[in-house]
Amino acid sequence: MSNEKKTVAVLGAGTMGSGIATVMARAGHRTLLFDIDDANLQRGVDTVHGFVDKSIKLGKLDAEAGQGAKDALSGTTALSDLSACDVVVEAVFEDLALKKDLFGELDGIVSESTLFHTNTSTLSVTGIASGSTKPERVVGTHYCNPAPLMKLVEVADGRHTAEWAHKATIEFLSSLGKTSVVTKDRPGFIVNRFLIPWENSCIAALDAGVATTEEIDAAVLGSIGHPMGPFRLLDIVGMDIHQQVAMRLYEQLRDPKFFPPPMVERMVAAGDLGRKTGRGFYEYDDTRLFGS
Fold it and tell me: What is this structure's pTM?
């Protein structure tokens, strides 16, 4: 796959989907953001536009390039609109049957050469690929969150992934300015295998009164050198998503370090999910993913 501009579809307009769509549109690819819900779709499009506008305001993107990125993006609730896509990136809810069904339905819509990417980090790429009649074209591409800011993408082949699909995926990710690391098709891949237990430890420390939210975030920034503290990151990811990912990994690995602390359940029950609800570990006036 060359570096020429592609038509790319992103399935799911949530946090990860809108972030990945931002990456695609910013790279100049014609980008179709798909969601079955009109409100979610509009929110996703607004999130992409908001990130682009903020990048222009901060001087990280010139106005012409920013307008080009916004013009490259469109939204749809019809899978049939994806017929001309060169690449489809699935970033929907972590449900194996849903992901399999989407790829199976797309088999009859897109061309045989279309690459299928799944952003899963907890489910089997092989299992997801089994929903397609061409499992050889399915590759796991797990974008680190927040996708527009983090360069790393984990690449995991399924059992039947073809060499051409793997090579084309690496080339495509390089054209996006991303750095690829290849991992086996195992629960959590590399990043979440380490990140989820660490985040759980930070949450447990906060709940135990070891330090405040601000102090723990400051300690991480000042000692480990992460670009943001664990609680700022969790507010972007969403506590509901953290809970789902942690439970998926716990169910497969049966290691207690993946089990989310009680504070997670309390926050989810209260609706304190993070930036998208206006309150998580911090409070937000702007609920867009990358608001002020």
Answer: 0.92
